[in-house]
Amino acid sequence: MDLEKVKAKIQSGQTAxxxxxxxTRIKAVLMTDTIETVATGSFNWxxxxxxxxxxxxxxxxxxxxxxCYGAMAAxxxxxxxxxxxxxxxxxVSAMMHGYLPFNAKDELLVPFRTWRNNITGQAADELTEALxxxxxxxxxxxxxxxAVLNKEPHVPEISFFTTLAGYIxxxxxxxxxxxxxxxxxxxxxxxxxGSYDAxxxxxxxSLEKVEKQPWKLADILPGVLPAGxxxxxxxxxxxxxxxxxxxxxxxxxxxxxxGDAGTGMVGTNSVRKRTGNISVGTSAFSMNVLEKPLKAxxxxxxxxxxxxxAPVAMxxxxxxxxxxxAWAGLFGEFAAALGVETAPDKLYSVLFNQVRQxxxxxxxxxxxxxxxxxxxTATQEGRPLFVRTPHSRMNLPNFMLxxxxxxxxxxKIGMDVLINEENVRTDVMLAQxxxxxxxxxxxxxxxxxLEIPITIMDxxxxxxxxxxxxxxxxxxxxxxxxxxxxxxxEKVFKGASATTLQPQPEGVAGCRRFIQRFRSGIAVENAxxxxxxxxx
Length: 536
Prior knowledge:
By secondary structure, the protein is an alpha/beta fold. It is built from 19 helices and 23 strands.
């Protein structure tokens, strides 16, 4: 990267900013219009369970955005000696789904209800039947309809509802819009129309308890835009929300705001048909870009879209790395009690590398990593549980392998439906996420668990905000008519290196035995969780 060229691009505004509000971290990435990363900033945050609802404080969201933007701008000043004043294009992404309803005065009517909540079961079931389309509990429309069924007093006041990315975007530029990928997690979209499915909108409005409302669904949903379109310009108010120091000028072009699934697809070059990706973090999901519609409606498979509107079969699980993080924290505390301070990266590396000595089936150990409810296993509430028999081989290698198997187990159950019942195949399945920072271990366990080759690109660790910055480049600087898939192939990932690991027969057989134990114990796990809840 030529230092002087980069400095010239920063000064002239030939840069793009991606901001993503993830489940545990808010991060900003600034890159040039030629996809060279200039600077980053981050802020840690966490959801809270309040009155039985998983939520985030929106004031903390702005605190986090300002903090990570400030850290990024300070890095630009330190590395290049330039005060950041002009940015050519930017975009916001965030956790998909959830519920943020506003009244005509733009006031939030109830605290943000995130994707993590399993409180919309009745709504999800009724909507799936009424629409003939799978509506998961975490989708925005399920939250809205559940509020209707519950006769919540705020419902008649709704004039607009949106996702977290849509809210932040609206505040930055005044536009109530979403990228089509994020919109497809609010309400089903029609690929041909490039917007919400008109027939399903009419069916929803005709539902008995919806007909009584003073609004029509189409009037309170955000507008829909594909990748590459302008979605507004940064206002003076928006510039100050990002940069309270007052250096950033308004006028930046904003790309359509996207969900974390969409930025994950971009970050792994997985938007072309017959490609797929898997993103693992607090939650996990696989995305398979479809060649043709699925044959049936499956409650464990969502149909969403790529950022340019192609249909995607999504298997989403609410729980992945949280339980691993909790155990790693415990081991870190133990090390500290012995007088050994261990950096987090080293701690995870040491623990994960223990898996090399593990028995293929984790020695008979079983783990349920359900910090929150899990739809695929019909687990209503979080109740992490580690189980062993008197004959299980309890040692650190087996324990860590059981943790990794557990992180991928619910995803495996959903993927089995897609592969075995729908015969969906991909030419390449790419993975990204923090569990893969330790080379080989997590990647090999995932390949064994899903029984498919898993590829990790060198750039996959860049994550969602990097993918959002790429979408901002595509919207702000892309003038040659390339579609998104060709743009990623030719301008972003050309010459990128990657590593592919094949499933190992012994590991596949061992994971099958673990999954068999896992499946057979789900009813017991759910009952134990309920018993603990009943005891208080």
